[in-house]
Amino acid sequence: MSMIAAYIIFPVVLALGIVRKYRQSQWGTCTDFRSLQGKVFVVTGANSGLGKETVKGLAQREARVILACRNIDNAKAVISEIRRSISTGELIPMTLDLASLKSVENFAESLIRDFPEIHALINNAGVSVPVADGEKTADGFEINFGVNHLGHFLLTNRLLPTLKNSAPSRIVIVSSLLHERGTIDFDNLNGEKGWPKKRMNPAYSNSKLANAYFCVELASRLKKDDVSNVDVVAVCPGFCYTQLFRYSNIRWWQYILFAPIAFFFMRSAKQGAQNILHCAVSDEILGKSGEFFRDCKPYKSKHNFDPQVSIKLWETSEQMVSKK
């Protein structure tokens, strides 16, 4: 048995460990640790996963961070947790439910009133709810599209004047590589015609594509308005171990089958948040407004972005949120 361990098991484990370490080295790390004292950052979905790790990174850099969370008690609990290891920065909990346009309006109004300067908005919050559940937002929108896109679309537009007045400032839109599997069907934004049955949560992929289109169109509009000191970028944090897929009905045996893939490809929330932090604080994104980032560097999407779709999605989103 000892011979088997010495000549087979140990070399295999060592090789797997080396491959894992190599992959980690390709994921990128935010290397900008300058002080952000006096700068105000807003992070949606800040009480868990990528949002929490992003808040930690900003707090370590002495930033003033608004934790925009659906449950204020969870936000306060996370602040207490962070304070056990990080004493710098200022952490402020606020209530924001992106599944309710009224909540978005109330949050934006309070934020603008209490914080005359906002230097970065990080649209991080997201859900991946199986389309079979048929879940809707408080305003009747399909839950993935409503939370991941429409809620952030309204929030960003409400805060945009303050972001312009606080420039240089940034808007970081957390998308996903799954946007490349998405489609923008204006006759099926809310699943009116149903969903493809062979695709893994097509509504989530569509919402992530909407995020990417929002980034492209917002950057274009800022450029047309001659606003060069507000940068907007989209970012894929990578395939991360978070609570995003908590609504998925995954069986125990599927976890076993998935384990090898997870070992080689899945990142921790802290590793994924490095991409978000890079886009939020690094000077390397200056002049790259409208671009997509992955592994802390620009990424060329396989999706062929159509300028007409970009404009129409913006106008349609405006109509959808204004009607409610």
TrEMBL record:
InterPro entries the record matches: NAD(P)-bd_dom_sf, SDR_fam
Swiss-Prot/TrEMBL keywords: Oxidoreductase, Signal
Coiled coil regions in record: none
Position of the signal peptide: 1-15
MF GO annotations: oxidoreductase activity
PANTHER family: PHOSPHATIDYLINOSITOL-GLYCAN BIOSYNTHESIS CLASS F PROTEIN, PHOSPHATIDYLINOSITOL-GLYCAN BIOSYNTHESIS CLASS F PROTEIN-RELATED
Record-given protein name: Uncharacterized protein
